[in-house]
């Protein structure tokens, strides 16, 4: 009978020590409303720990906390990250064994990505953390670069390595914006 009482006493004592060490709460002023915002901080902003974050919105989220460890976002998916923004109709995020570690992301159905002044379009985009590759596939996946040039794959797709910044396009077709006089026009000497 004494063991449960000692346990309760220990919990009460720990609570008193924690309250004694905690800073005093700020005084309450009923005339000064607490700052409130219905809008969460912008994606790319820092959490209190200083880490940037990604915001994902969709119509529906199904999360499997069990052995599969996947999050399935469906309908009007928008993922805003400090590096890029992605739109699609379905996105599946696969998590690793350790907490919120993302292993792979698959975006499907009307995929569009924007990074600074570059845009990419396709039927499917897959990012794999281990390889750092972003693979864009589907019916003629294409990329619009910062100069207004279109790069289209007539083959298997476009592979972009996020770490090395190297892009590989299978069976490319390019539409290059020409400068005045044409892209291959000789330079006029003055």
Key terms:
elongated; 190 residues; 41% strand; disordered N terminus; 12 strands; mainly beta; lipopolysaccharide transport protein A fold; twelve-stranded antiparallel sheet; single chain
Describe this structure in words.
The structure is a single chain. This protein is mostly beta strands. It has a domain at 55-175: Lipopolysaccharide (LPS) transport protein A like domain (lipopolysaccharide transport protein A fold). It contains one helix and twelve strands; from the N terminus they run αββββββββββββ. It has one helix at 2-21; strands at residues 55-57, 60-64, 70-80, 85-95, 102-115, 118-128, 133-137, 142-144, 150-153, 158-161, 167-169, 172-175. Strands 1, 2, 3, 4, 5, 6, 7, 8, 9, 10, 11 and 12 form a twelve-stranded antiparallel β-sheet that branches. The longest helix is centred in the N-terminal third of the chain and has 20 residues, at 2-21. The N and C termini lie far apart (102 Å). Mean pLDDT is 75; it is low at 1-44.
Short summary of the structure?
The protein is mainly beta and 190 residues long.
Q: Strands, helices and their partners?
A:
Layout lengths: L1 H20 L33 E3 L2 E5 L5 E11 L4 E11 L6 E14 L2 E11 L4 E5 L4 E3 L5 E4 L4 E4 L5 E3 L2 E4 L15
Antiparallel strand pairs: 1-3, 2-3, 3-4, 4-5, 5-6, 6-7, 6-8, 7-10, 8-9, 9-12, 10-11
- CATH class of the domain at 55-175 equals Mainly Beta
Q: Give the end-to-end Cα distance, rounded to a whole number of Å.
A: 102 Å
Low-confidence stretches: 1-44
Number of helices: 1
State the helical fraction: 10-25%
